[in-house]
Amino acid sequence: MKVSITSGKSEGPTKLNAFDNALLDAGIGNVNLIKVSSIIPANARVVRLPALEIGSTVNCVLSHSISDSRGDLISAAIAVALSDNIGCVAENSGINKDPEIIREDAISMVEYMMKRRGEKIKNLIVEEINHKVKECGAVVAALVYL
């Protein structure tokens, strides 16, 4: 199995439009996303996000934040931990929170998930995105199953 990690940010006239635009910015806006829990099978490879077939159904772990309050700092993060036997994904997001705390909390959660499973992390990948809202903004970070 292959997975990709991506993120995007954007503005729009409404929260829905801002979210849709952030998905487009991340390269996952023209597919139907199905949110799944946070497990990656053994031997999965992390690859660059390919062009996805328009209208296809795609499983993902999705973190997002949306605000229509000018000046808000919105953040989303995905932390991915891989071992020889399994991978885990943790997502975190927030509004007007320190982006470093958003990131560190995602890492802490995925490290705990792996420890609970008795797995040693071989590779840790973090994708994070932040945006200062102008009118109505959204951020997304996702792990996409290909």
TrEMBL record:
Record-annotated site: Cleavage (non-hydrolytic): 37-38
Gene Ontology biological process: L-arginine catabolic process
Signal sequence range: none
Cofactor note: Binds 1 pyruvoyl group covalently per subunit.
Pfam families in alphabetical order: PvlArgDC (PF01862)
Catalytic activity: L-arginine + H(+) = agmatine + CO2
InterPro entries (UniProt xref): Pyr-dep_his/arg-deCO2ase (IPR016104), Pyr-dep_his/arg-deCO2ase_sand (IPR016105), Pyruvoyl-dep_arg_deCO2ase (IPR002724)
GO molecular function: arginine decarboxylase activity
Source organism per UniProt: Methanothermobacter tenebrarum
Coiled-coil positions: none
Entry keywords, A to Z: Decarboxylase, Lyase, Pyruvate
UniProt family annotation: Belongs to the PdaD family.
Post-translational modification Pyruvic acid (Ser), affected residues: 38
Name of the protein described by the UniProt record: Pyruvoyl-dependent arginine decarboxylase
Enzyme Commission number(s): 4.1.1.19
Cofactor(s) the record lists: pyruvate
Phylogenetic placement of the source organism: Archaea, Methanobacteriati, Methanobacteriota, Methanomada group, Methanobacteria
